[in-house]
Amino acid sequence: MAEVETFQIGSMNVHFQPSKKYKTTTFVLQIKAPLAKGSAASRALLMQVLQAGTNKFPSRRAIRKHLDSLYGASFGGDVSKKGEQHFLTFFMEVPHEKFLQQEDEPLVKKALSFLTSALLEPVRENGTFKESIVHEEKQALKSKIKNIADDKVRYANGRLIEEMCKDETYGIHPYGSYDEVEALTTQDLEQAYESLLENDQFDLFITGPGKVDELTPVLNERKASFKSRAVKTSTTVNGPTNNGREVIEHQDLQQAKLHLGFRVPYTASDAEYATVLVANGIFGAFPHSKLFVNVREKESLAYYAASRYEPYKGLIFAMAGIGFEQFEKATKIMTEQLDALKAGDFTEDELTTTKLMIKNQILEQVDTARGNIDLMYQNVLTGRERSVEERVSEIDAVTREDVERVSKAIELDTVYLLTGKEERA
User: Fold this and answer.
1) Distance between CA atoms of 280 and 268, rounded to whole angstroms?
2) Mean pLDDT to the nearest integer, 321-350
3) Among 134, 318, 352, 361, which one has the highest count of C-beta atoms within 10 angstroms of its own C-beta?
């Protein structure tokens, strides 16, 4: 991969990485603001509305037709959180004309022009967002929120976070709540849009064939629109506040969901990041990990068992689908797997296999343009410039003693069980 060229257009940071690896050019526009209860829902709805039409292409159907004219270009958006920061993400991918038979104007210019217009030229009616679009997109966002509640694994993880971080900003869902979305007005959306343009931080990532000279004229035309200041956001990394508090919720379901939340005092910004990845890998991230082998296979307690590290907040989530009557036994065995890490009770094979799996994940990630851009943005967010080679070397360098040391800093915070209505957990 070539070096990343970073420059500013107005207040927008542009990160350009030429690559002959891909036959398409990929654009990812990251829009960052502090995560806040008063703005998450309006920003999430705003993201829906901005994808629904521009001045030139005033409907989703018109946008699809335009994308078809760009040889099947793709376009979309998402809302997420990383630590206590809220992100609106636009992405677009378009074939490069060098791989096509003919094209008068570079497709990358047309694609970038459309992408910026989606942000800066939304379809309007009487000087404001169209009520019909706002209504339709509000229904779509409420359906997304409802779908999370219907997916019991996602619901349980969300409820664990709510309980674990109820006095922290991280406890806020990036979509806001159903009721918050329902209460939003077109005026609320206008205020959110104005705040976004004036206050958010914009980072545009571009990777693929071609030269930056093809793109800067399009961006310079928009230069005056990017006038926001750099956003200083921070995430509070806390120690355990709940001391293993149990939260049990009853619903009508066939299988209980047991989710454990742990605190770890290291994030992606820290030198210990690679070691936490390895520790979590041995704990529960892979099919050879302790949770899968001991909870699911040896004890036959769980239909699934795994763990996930949230590297921007310093949390580890362990989860298992269990029988209603297995709560105490499953909780005990799951926590024992972490105790084993702390005691150094893992084999060289577990350590070696985990490191190999993580290195393969990194290499597979940079095989895709979106994955490569995600790593580039992590460098921006953490202020730590890690090349792919450096990331792999950091994993290689992790020792048994490193894993023991970091594991001893991981502490149980909250135990959440979603179980059946009639059963006693």
Assistant:
1) 13
2) 96
3) 318
- Residues 102 and 136 occupy one common structural domain: yes
- Sheet of 85-95: strand order equals 5-9, 12-18, 201-208, 24-34, 85-95, 74-82
- Tell me the C-alpha distance between 319 and 306, whole Å: 6
Q: Assess contact for 181 and 45: CB atoms under 8 A.
A: yes
Q: What is the domain count for the chain? A: 2
Q: Are residues 325 and 275 in the same domain?
A: yes
The backbone torsions φ and ψ at residue 83, rounded to the nearest 5 degrees and listed phi first, read: 60, -135
Residue with tokens 């378009």: 94
Contact 115, 215 (CB under 8 A): no
> Which pTM value belongs to this model?
0.94
Place of tokens 């001893």: 408
Q: How much is the pLDDT for 230? A: 65
Based on the fold, state whether residues 209 and 306 are members of the same structural domain.
no
Token readout for 240 is 């355990």
In the numeric block, the tokens 């919720």 are attached to: 249
What are residue 418's DSSP bridge partners?
249, 257
Q: How many Å apart are CA 260 and CA 278, to the nearest integer?
A: 19
| Domain containing residue 73 | 5-225
In a 10 Å sphere around its CB, with 0-12 CB exposed, 13-18 middle and 19+ buried, how is residue 179 labelled? exposed
The CATH number given to whatever domain includes residue 163 is 3.30.830.10
Tens of pLDDT, residues 353-373: 999 999 999 999 999 999 999
**What's the angle, vertex CA 217, arms to CA 213 and CA 221, rounded to 5?**
160
Closest C-alpha among 345, 152, 174 to residue 249: 152
Q: Nearest CA to 87 among 43, 53, 48?
A: 43
